[in-house]
Amino acid sequence: QVQLVESGGGLVQPGGSLRLSCAASGSIFSIYAVAWYRQTPGKQRELVAIMPSAGSTNYADSVKGRFTISRDNPKNTVYLQMNSLKPEDTAVYYCNADIRGTKGSDRYNYWGRGTQVTVSS
């Protein structure tokens, strides 16, 4: 069974930085596209950043130039570096990944449980 566990959330002042981590564990043969989403109460979950297994990384317009998604393949870990944080970045941040568990098996999409980021003075 594959699990995604986020960490690194917390309370930060406007203008500050946080780095979120998402560690994948379990039976993992290969990780393909990875992404970060966020959600606030009463709103739909929105895409923040996505890194395909091949091709360009994409970001939501609201975070371009401030957030950076990256991955450490040997560690099965995805990161989201968030700089120049604003109060409107406050949300629960979720990790998402397409993972093949064993060679020859199907790929499945997995979600983490989320980590809270609060930007406030």
Protein model, in words:
The chain is built from no helices and 11 strands. By secondary structure, the chain is mainly beta. Strands 2, 4, 5, 6, 9, 10 and 11 form a 7-stranded mixed β-sheet that branches. β5 and β6 form a beta hairpin.
Give the gist of this structure.
0% of the residues lie in helices and 55% in strands. The radius of gyration is 14 Å and the shape is elongated.
Largest sheet: 7 strands, mixed
Q: What is the N-to-C order of secondary-structure elements (H for helix, E for strand)? A: EEEEEEEEEEE
Indicate the mean pLDDT: 96
Give the low-confidence spans.
none
User: What is the terminal separation in angstroms?
Assistant: 40 Å
* Helicity range: under 10%
The total beta strand count reads: 11
Binned strand content: over 45%
How many individual helices? 0
- Looking at the structure, what is the overall shape? elongated
Rg over CA atoms: 14 Å
Structural class: mainly beta
Defining traits:
single chain, elongated, 121 residues
